[in-house]
Amino acid sequence: MARISRIVITHHQLPLEPPFPASWDTRPRTRFPATLVRVFDDEGRVGVGSGDAMLGFSNYEHLFVGQEALELDRHHAILMNIDFHGARPWPLDIALWDLAGKTQGQPVWKMLGGKTPRLRAYQSSGVHRSIDGMVEVATRCLAAGIPALKVRFGRKDLSEDLSVLHAIREAVGDRLELMVDCNQGWRMPWDTAPSWDLEHAVRVVKELEKLRVFWMEEPLHRGDYEGMRKLRNRGGIRLAGAELTREPYEWRELLQRDCLDVFQPDAVLTGGITGLAPFAREVAQRGRLFSSHTWGNGLGIMANLQLIAGTAGETFVEWPLDAPEWTPERRDYLLQSPLELDSEGWFTLPETPGLGIELNEVMLEKTLSKTATFH
Ligand SMILES: [Mg+2]
């Protein structure tokens, strides 16, 4: 059995000109940071992962070096402890799965028991544009064959958000499924705005029901279980959430208390593939949807799509895309070439062992950075 010989972590930053004004961030982003984790075994293989910045991880590296690489459950237990005491170390779990796949000659989705490599995407927009601008985004989404579009709420006035949604529905009719992300579950470090309260969320949900929205995402703070349950019990719309919720007992609590229809924990930021695979199966068995948050870089998208195809399958998966500020080239700059959908919005996972990605070493060299933050 191969043993882990070393773990190498590098930080990267892609300059963004024009900047990316993410709707959930109060500061336009002038750079796109990424952290890459490479785990090597003593037979010369390497697995890669990305996601969280892995700050402070060097203090824990000795807990993995010299251990058998394929003991994923053991590594996951240590990663859970690190997650509790410090930053989110989940990119290492992703890298260990990539390594395990390469060792066993299998793609990750097959190792997890997946039956089909095909997943259908929804376009996840990220910018608050004018009404005309948003209608254009929707029209382009339709023309690209993508069957669903997620729109961001959170403009100064609710009426502005609703005008955008009305205009999109009017322009595309029922040819697109529409999701709405309220982004009230968590905040960026510099943002002190409170989350919506239940009363406001109810006001919004009534409007979304009229517009036949497929799911309403993060309408309340991530810990407002009772609020989510009440909102969901109205029965008019699917509720989605838990994208960065980090503890497995919290995911289960949300499932058992009937708070959500769509569960979105992101494997590169919470739980890893090892922690989320059993939960995703449980969600599917209960007749709910599992569709990870994937907003981040292409390596993270691939890790989550491998997880979904290997477990729950059968759902729309998040495809971050909002040109010109958020293009596949920017999003996937760690990769040799950007990930692509076919002309009907399907993504087909590769048969290549592990995650099936190839790094762009030239770009990685060019974007090397000492820090892994947005500024
Ligand atoms: Mg979201």
In short:
With 375 residues, the chain is of the alpha/beta class.
Number of helices: 12
Query: Kindly state the mean pLDDT as a whole number?
Result: 97
CATH homologous superfamily name of the largest domain? Answer: Enolase-like C-terminal domain
Estimate the helix proportion, in percent: 25-40%
Using the coordinates shown, work out and report the CATH topology of the largest domain: TIM Barrel
In terms of DSSP E residues, the strand content is: 15-25%
CATH class label of the largest domain = Alpha Beta
Give the helix/strand class: alpha/beta
Radius of gyration: 20 Å
Oligomer: single chain
How many domain regions? Answer: 2
* CATH architecture assignment of the largest domain: Alpha-Beta Barrel
Question: How many β-strand stretches?
Answer: 13
Low-confidence stretches: none
End-to-end span in angstroms?
42 Å
H and E string: EEEHHHEHEHEHEHEHEHEHEHEHE
Which ions, cofactors or small ligands are bound in this entry?
magnesium ion
